[in-house]
């Protein structure tokens, strides 16, 4: 540390580029600090540093990382502790641009595999972003010394030393994540697709605040007919609603909680922090939210089971469009999800194309089948489950046609849940039925698809590979501007970054050896499982978070060939 302080003193008031000379390793006694990247300008992306502390110095029990899921939870907890310490001890703005910033990439309500904290064989490492301070574009050495000499040691002392944190909270965090992982495996082995524990708090504070709404919260309570009891390895016995495989409708009046329940289920593919209210809500890990996406790009997708004999003879067996309609985009989204291995589709009527969802008896009588190219989902949904084991949970508020094809019908009334399956079947039986459904032919056949290699190279101008993540749902990959707003289960900036790196790794390592994009991307995930997120990059980053296979495939599927 003394070497670093001496160097900084000698740089005072020099031009900002002189900071480059401090790159390297420094011994602080308790920990080691590595300055890996020095920003070229106070307004540029902050510098990157790594801090490693030996496990025996940190004092944590080996139980914290005894299994992969416990290690993910432990790393997540430490990242949150570091973030709290940064907020507590870092003075912040100290001059021009990003001067004085110290931060770590960490999650909000979900627990994701990240590389901002890493448990290695002998050490625990954290990765921070640091804005080296300047006045104008001149080095402010006094402020830099304060950051390295005072703030960083305090962050480490209060985040990575066991005796200085709450052991009770740490244990609760790890145990909760382990229980959620257990519960997600339990539903799969017991032929369920989702579980919601009693007393869960599903409503959120707002559309931009994912924290639980705790002002007079409505606690979830399962209807008796769907109630099950599960014994978790840490928490013990819990009671809640288990949704079986099959076709499940969620119905009810507007603003009574239908979409709130579905939103909790779509995020149930992720683990949540204790106290989130959804930390005992789990869904099949391959569940995919399906919606209409007017204007999305579609490349060679077989949507013929939903849409066929289009005017002008346009082929729907290898359908492509630069500006897809609501119905064609929703059909493509289903095909792509199934091709990616999903066995649970989550659909909300509010974000669906109405002509894709239903065509009632009166419209069927008026418009002949051979004049209507769209076969609505209501005609396909039973075959999907009975012949291909693909379940669905559908929020439906405007049509009762789905009653005749549903296994279970759940009604929300002022956020209270009721099983109205029998009543729905009675209503379906007493009304005019739909025409008989057609059989599924090529609908779920996994045809091999592979993007043109040039599309995924990431090349831009003089750069062999370049990307920019402007927001969670806005990725510029190479020359391609990719709109990810329709991928609703993409939740973190770090996931979007990782998607870009995964596509690059696919391009460089597994593209040529696999004729199917799904298999090629799966091979990259196998590499990550074996070597960690660091295997994706040439240099050490701390900003990556693991996405799912489905979100990576969905991104590739949205690359516009003509960009």
Keywords:
six-stranded antiparallel β-sheet; 14 helices; 563 residues; Rossmann fold; six-stranded mixed β-sheet; alpha+beta; 30% helix
Description:
- Strands 1, 2, 3, 4, 6 and 7 form a six-stranded antiparallel sheet that branches. Strands 18-21-22-15-23-24 form a six-stranded mixed sheet, sandwiched between helices. Strands 13-14-10-17 form a four-stranded antiparallel sheet, sandwiched between helices.
- A hairpin with a 2-residue loop joins β25 and β26.
- It has three domains: 2-165, no CATH class; 288-430, 3-Layer(aba) Sandwich (Rossmann fold), CATH 3.40.50; 453-557, no CATH class.
- By secondary structure, the chain is α+β, with helices and mostly antiparallel strands.
- The chain contains 14 helices and 27 strands.
Summarize the structure.
With 563 residues, this protein is α+β, with helices and mostly antiparallel strands.
The largest sheet is: 6 strands, antiparallel
Radius of gyration: 26 Å
> How many β-strands, per DSSP?
27
> Low-confidence segments, ≥5 residues, pLDDT <50?
436-442
The geometry reads as globular
- Backbone structural class: alpha+beta
Beta-strand percentage range? 15-25%
Number of helices: 14
């Amino acid at each position: 540390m003394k070497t670093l302080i001496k160097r900084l003193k000698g740089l005072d008031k020099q031009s900002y580029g002189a900071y480059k000379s401090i790159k390297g390793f420094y011994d602080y006694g308790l920990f080691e600090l590595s300055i890996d990247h020095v920003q070229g300008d106070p307004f540029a992306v902050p510098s990157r540093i790594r801090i490693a502390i030996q496990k025996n110095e940190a004092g944590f029990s080996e139980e914290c990382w005894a299994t992969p899921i416990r290690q993910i939870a432990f790393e997540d907890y430490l990242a949150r502790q570091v973030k709290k310490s940064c907020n507590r001890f870092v003075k912040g703005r100290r001059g021009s641009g990003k001067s004085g910033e110290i931060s770590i990439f960490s999650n909000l309500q979900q627990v994701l595999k990240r590389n901002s904290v890493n448990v290695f064989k002998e050490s625990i490492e954290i990765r921070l972003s640091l804005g080296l301070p300047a006045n104008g574009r001149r080095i402010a050495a006094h402020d830099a010394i304060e950051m390295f000499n005072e703030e960083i040691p305090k962050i480490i002392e209060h985040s990575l030393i066991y005796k200085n944190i709450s052991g009770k909270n740490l244990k609760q965090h790890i145990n909760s994540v382990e229980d959620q992982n257990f519960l997600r495996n339990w539903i799969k082995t017991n032929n369920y697709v989702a579980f919601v524990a009693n007393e869960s708090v599903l409503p959120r504070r707002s559309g931009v605040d994912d924290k639980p709404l705790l002002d007079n919260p409505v606690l979830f309570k399962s209807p008796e007919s769907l109630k099950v009891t599960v014994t978790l390895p840490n928490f013990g016995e819990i009671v809640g609603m288990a949704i079986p495989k099959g076709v499940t409708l969620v119905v009810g009046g507007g603003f009574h909680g239908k979409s709130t329940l579905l939103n909790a289920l779509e995020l149930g593919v992720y683990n949540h922090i204790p106290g989130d209210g959804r930390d005992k809500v789990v869904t099949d890990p391959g569940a995919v939210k399906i919606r209409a996406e007017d204007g999305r790009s579609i490349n060679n997708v077989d949507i013929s089971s939903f849409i066929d004999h289009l005017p002008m003879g346009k082929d729907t067996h290898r359908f492509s469009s630069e500006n897809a309609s609501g119905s064609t985009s929703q059909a493509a989204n289903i095909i792509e999800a199934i091709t990616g291995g999903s066995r649970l589709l989550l659909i909300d009527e509010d974000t669906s194309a109405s002509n894709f969802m239903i065509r009632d008896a009166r419209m069927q009588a008026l418009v002949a089948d051979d004049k209507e190219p769209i076969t609505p989902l209501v005609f396909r949904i039973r075959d999907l489950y009975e012949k291909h084991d693909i379940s669905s949970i559908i929020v439906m508020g405007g049509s009762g046609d789905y009653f005749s094809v549903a296994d279970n019908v759940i009604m929300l009334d002022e956020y209270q849940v009721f099983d109205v399956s029998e009543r729905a079947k009675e209503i379906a039986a007493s009304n005019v039925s739909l025409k008989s459904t057609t059989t599924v032919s090529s609908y779920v056949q996994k045809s091999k698809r592979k993007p043109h290699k040039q599309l995924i190279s990431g090349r831009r101008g003089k750069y062999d590979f370049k990307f920019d993540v402007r927001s969670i749902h806005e990725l510029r990959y190479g020359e391609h501007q990719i709109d990810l707003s329709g991928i609703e289960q993409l939740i973190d900036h770090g996931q979007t970054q990782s998607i870009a790196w995964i596509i690059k790794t696919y391009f460089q390592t597994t593209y040529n050896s696999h004729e199917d994009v799904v298999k090629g991307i799966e091979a990259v995930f196998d590499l990550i499982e074996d070597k960690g997120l660091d295997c994706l990059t040439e240099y050490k980053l701390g900003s990556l978070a693991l996405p799912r296979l489905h979100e990576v495939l969905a991104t590739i599927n949205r690359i516009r060939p003509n960009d």
